[in-house]
Amino acid sequence: MSNLEASIRSVSNEEAPRASYARSASIGMLWVAAALGVGKLLSLISQIFLGHVLSVETYAIFGMASTAVALTAGFQNPNVGKALIQSATHFPELFIRYSAFAFQFGLIGSMFLIILGWVFAETYDMPQLCAVLVITGLSVPLLSVNTTLAAGLSLSYRFRDINTVDIKRSLIYYFALVSIALLGAEALTMAVAMLIANVAAHLLLLRQSALLPSYFKLRPRDFAITLGTLRWVILSSFLAALAMRSDYFVLGKMLNMEEMGYYTFAIMLVASLTLPISTGITQVFLPIFARLQGDEQALLREVQRFSAAIVIIGSVLCLLMLGMNAVLIHLLWGGKWDLTHFVVNALAMAMPFRFLGMIAGVGLEAIGRWRLRNGLLAFEAVLLSTFAAIGAALGGLNGAIAGTVVQFVVGSFVGFYFIRRVLCGRVGGAAAMTLRLYAPFVAAGAMLLVLSPSRHGTGAGPQTLALAASETLAALVLFSLLTFLLNRTVLVAALNLVRQWIARR
């Protein structure tokens, strides 16, 4: 029996606390899925609308603006919330100090983002970037404090309250987004809508958590001490954003505005569709993993068990994207974004691997291994910019996304192997485990690529839509069959676990 099978089968023999972690994860993921389901439905509707109203060049500005925001990610989300979750037993006394630190650190980030607006506008010859980043910078302090309020809810497993706030925020954001776009704001559309939504989210979190942050009651000396205490945690937040956006620094110079617009549109589309999984990994698994500090074998079992579940769920979602994206993109936007087909296909093949790396990262954060986490994030950032640059030099837009995909896969496997080494002192069996998990997805995905779903992108109509749907269904059947054959014990144990949860209700 493999380590993965043993870790999942062992759940039925664990004591009540282990089952409660699994139950909390299940409920938490359901609420995350519900909140993000609403958000992503609104996102899809708004993206269909914006895809018609806004120009390709405007999406290039969005891409570069998000890159500048990534440079200040450590100010918006300095991981103070994660530090509070990791130090759960000291939350009451730490909250006041950390919330004040988060707000004041966010003020510094706000000023830094405004400066970046001028620098980026000059560097990339995009004058609109300056105003976009000035408006975006206004909400940075509130975003920073919001992470501490959400941490208090997470520690109590109040995922329903967190995601209720997310649902309301989504409704406010997308209503504002469409309204502002109709007024002709163009590049300012997202920045203004985001500011409105972030202010609303802060007020809603204050009400739900019943916590009162301390915004300014932190002396300069105490600020410096807190900064020193949290230096590795804060550095991680900067590096995490850089590891996701370092490709833009080189591609902004190597690709033209139109290519950057297509690249950004495709990444936004895929990120929008996969966000329920990636957000759930951080929001739900971090507090659960943090509770298992000191019991490395139990933590390893949970990491492996949840990794298997997320890979299977993520694979199904990505196969749907692979099979249907070309025809739907053509139908929804009338051919305007047809050149993004290859980019979306490549990202869909890479995302299940990316999810594995995300879980590994959350595992390292849960046990406070921030230096190792930072080293891996720095490695990913360098790898991403390097591979994207090489790909762009060799193949333009398509080459750039191919380089990005290679980094996703390599970085994820490296992160997963390190979490295994930290928790059990060895990496033996990891290769066999990942091979069995991913073989069904790779086979089904390869079948769709051989059938060439991109050929459905032009002249799409009811017949091509039906053909793409039938090919996607065939791929899902193949995936299900191979998953059952290669991971039967895992599936049976998981189904038994679900039945146990239902019986306890």
Please explain how this structure is put together:
- By secondary structure, the chain is an all-alpha fold.
- The chain is built from 19 helices and no strands.
- It has helices at residues 3-9, 16-53, 56-71, 73-76, 80-86, 91-123, 128-137, 140-155, 159-182, 189-209, 220-229, 231-254, 257-291, 296-333, 341-366, 370-424, 430-450, 462-486, 488-504.
- Helix 6 (91-123) crosses helix 11 (220-229) and helix 7 packs parallel to helix 10.
- The two termini are 31 Å apart.
* Secondary structure: helix percent: over 70%
List the secondary-structure elements in sequence, H or E.
Answer: HHHHHHHHHHHHHHHHHHH
Number of strands: 0
Structural class: mainly alpha
Stretches with pLDDT under 50, minimum 5 residues: 1-19, 500-505
The major beta sheet can be summarized as: none
Rg from C-alpha positions? Answer: 22 Å
Strand content: under 5%
Termini separation: 31 Å
**What is the overall pLDDT average?**
77
Key words describing this protein structure:
mainly alpha, 505 residues, 19 helices
What does the secondary structure layout of this molecule look like, with pairings?
Blueprint: H1 3-9, H2 16-53, H3 56-71, H4 73-76, H5 80-86, H6 91-123, H7 128-137, H8 140-155, H9 159-182, H10 189-209, H11 220-229, H12 231-254, H13 257-291, H14 296-333, H15 341-366, H16 370-424, H17 430-450, H18 462-486, H19 488-504
Helix pairs in contact: 1-14, 1-19, 2-9, 2-13, 2-14, 3-6, 3-7, 3-12, 3-13, 5-6, 5-8, 6-7, 6-8, 6-11, 7-10, 8-10, 9-10, 12-16, 13-14, 13-15, 14-15, 14-16, 14-17, 14-18, 15-16, 15-17, 17-18
